[in-house]
Amino acid sequence: KFNDMNGDSLTTGDPTLNGWTIQLWKGEVLVATAVTSGNGNYSFGNLSPGSYGITEVVQQGWVRTAPQGGVHFATLSSGLNVTGKDFANFNLVSIGGMKFNDYDGDSVKDVNENGLPDWRILLQKDGIPFDTAITDVNGNYSFTELFAGEYNICEEGVQGWYQTKPSVPCYTVTTMSGVNITDKDFGNFQYGSVAGYKFFDHDSGGDFDSQFDDFLDSLRVVLIGTHTQPETVLTDANGQFLFEQVPADDYIVQEVPRALWRQTYPALGASYSLTMMSGLDTSGFVFGNFYMPDTGKYRTFMRTDYYKAASAKPKGKTQIKKPNAGNIRDSVFLNRGFGWDSPIDSGYLRVGIRRYDSTDCYGWFFFPYDSVREKTQRKRGYHAPSVSKYQFAKPWKKEPKTNYFRWTGEINTSSQFANAVNHLAFELLTLKTNVAASDLGHTPVGLGDLVFDRLSGADTIFNNMTIRQIMAKCDTALTMGLIHCPAPALPDTVIPIGRLIVMDSVITRLNRDFWKALDSRKFTDSISTSPLRFKGGVALYKVSYLKRDYTKVSALTRFVPTVVQSAIPYEYLLEQNYPNPFNPRTVIRYQLSVTSTVTLKIFDLLGREVQSIADNEIMDEGEYEMEFDATHLASGVYFYRLVANGIEDNSNAFVDVKKMLLVK
Fold first, then answer.
1. What is the model's pLDDT at position 391?
2. I need a surface site. Which of 21, 408, 509, 614 has the fewest CB within 10 A?
3. What CA–CA distances, in Å, run from 374 to 121, 371, 378?
């Protein structure tokens, strides 16, 4: 009786088995039994001639491998001994192990690493699926009653985990009779995550102030592992960043430096260190950043500053000794520095919005350049024309004696803003001058492009608007705020008084928060007087509700007026384009003696219209320059025609045509 170790039915080299019962049959009659002993031998003696069958009693957990069919047959005659009726058996085996959470990802099961229940383990025999097992509450699994053969033991993967043990996808084993396999363990590591956010540290204090600081998007953060390739992600719209499916390793979390930005938290540009453990979802990695140009300063002047007379040049000197806000005011007006984002104003000052459709209901102030000839001198200056029915349908009682509203005798009406001369108009006029001074470079540039941003309060209606956009909102309010028109001309419209109060408050703060008194003794505030330039007064980061649009490091592109210091034209005029010939751009200049509807179009030699520069647009009296871009046109002769008709007097009509040459 042999223990068939490899289950091949051959007994050479296999050990013998004692204690097994062998049966001798004659026909269907059990003649005798024997138990193997010694070297697994058995024998039956004193048998009479005849035919016999020899079988074994198979013990539990074993299978017979020889003889085939399970029976030896023997025919005895007188004096004949029969040998070699051997039996071979294979003791069925088991394969088992444990599925554990490899917390540190080192492929070794440590004492504190628990088993993982309910994972599926797959068994293949000779490359063919054979059986499956589910790990128990302790993570153990077992395949039992396995016959001889080569087996593969694999795990069924689970999303979010990766296998750390074994180092190959599956174990491969060859079973031997009676030899159970118990050490085929699987280690798994659950991917972790690393999360945090980046914030705009407006005051560079190194901590997040929920009232004033906000979040930074589209900035890079990098995760660097000792044995893992670096990974980079971008912060989202809320400043959040997230690294997912992070394997076991030691890591450094750091931000990718960006030009013009300085890390304020962690201090001194430090990074974070962490060791990723199985299933660890980390958060709270915070980076604070300060925009370096925000240390730059801006300067504004208040309305009373602009009342002052401009400082004159000392006799015999070429430069102003002590320039003041009056010099800023005069330079802005004379250089047509207003409304660079509104070309139709030609750089002149406007308060309110233009509404020519019903001048009985709407009004606005426009300050064009005026020239009055006298006997011995020529005076130039800006003036505000009378408006019989200004916004809110209240009459304009007096014209201002200067460029800035000084009149304080407001009319008592249903709204404190129900007339033209009010505090909001005062402050808006002042803010427009401050923005124009910044645009011209008299004070630090960029004031008009700062973005309003408040966490709470009524003034959050202006969030994400630039100062220019806020001024435009106020212009609309002044013209459209409270209108009473004779029926059935237009319906009454009202902007709530609360909204107007908020506008007034915001505009007033914008004028004051960058204000700083000029040094009247040493006068170190000016950088130069030719050209006129002042230093900033207050750093941007100190004005918590304003921020720079950090996605636009360079200045915005705006309409740039040509400086023209001449009188309001007394006649219509269309000038020759310059340059001429041109390629591909040229400038067309014209002047209007009165407010007119203007049409300016380009035609080819066959009289076909090729481009419309202005189509029935209302323009105030003054000089205009329009650029014509002929990039899309072929070389040749073209004509431009100006048609202008006076708004108030149709007899003021003008038509002129000129020729120009495009050479490419």
1. 30
2. 408
3. 106, 10, 6
Whole-angstrom distance, CA of residue 303 vs CA of residue 279: 63
Q: What is the DSSP string of 625-664?
A: EEEEE-TTS-SEEEEEEEEEEESS-TT-EEEEEEEEEE--
Q: Using CA atoms, how far apart are residues 57 and 79, in angstroms rounded to an integer?
A: 28
Q: What integer pLDDT is reported at residue 363 of this predicted model?
A: 60
Do residues 404 and 301 make contact, with C-beta atoms less than 8 angstroms apart? no
Are 400 and 433 in contact by the 8 Å Cβ rule? The answer is: no
- Inter-residue contact 99 to 155 (CB < 8 Å): yes
Neighbour tally for 472: CB within 10 Å:
16
Distance in angstroms between the alpha carbons of the first and the last residue of the chain:
108
Look-up of token digits 């390629």:
583
- Residue 253 amino acid letter: V
Bridge partners (DSSP) listed for residue 253: 223, 272
Length of the chain: 664
> 429 Cβ partners below 8 Å, 6+ apart?
303, 349, 351, 404, 405
Eight-class DSSP state of 391: G
Cα 388 to Cα 215: distance, rounded to the nearest angstrom:
50
DSSP string, 68-116: TTS-EEEEE-TT--------EEEE-EEEEEEEEE-TT-SSS--TT--B-
> Contact at 8 Å (CB) between 186 and 121?
yes
DSSP string for 574-611: EPPPBSSSBSSEEEEEEEESS-EEEEEEEE-TTS-EEE
Give pLDDT < 50 ranges for the chain.
369-419, 487-489, 553-568
How confident is the model over 593-612, as pLDDT tens digits? 777 888 999 999 888 999 99
pLDDT of residue 585: 87
* Contact assessment for residue 398 and residue 381, using Cβ atoms and an 8 Å cutoff: no
> b/e per residue, 508-524, with b = 16+ CB within 10 A?
bebbebbeeebeeeeee
| CA dist 227 → 168, 187, 246, 248, 278 (Å) | 19, 19, 12, 9, 16
Are the C-beta atoms of 407 and 421 separated by less than 8 Å? Answer: yes
What pLDDT digit, counting tens, does each position of 370-414 carry? 433 333 333 333 333 333 222 322 333 333 333 333 333 333 333
Going by C-alpha positions, the residue among 130, 139, 232, 123 that lies closest to residue 173 is 123
Closest CA to 192 of 165, 166, 162, 218: 162
β-bridge pairing 120-125 and 240-246: unpaired
Closest among 409, 390, 459, 404 to 434, alpha carbons compared: 404
The CA–CA distances, whole Å, from 105 to 137, 243, 280 equal 21, 18, 12
Contact present, 50 and 76 (Cβ < 8 Å): yes
Contact 439, 432 (CB under 8 A): no
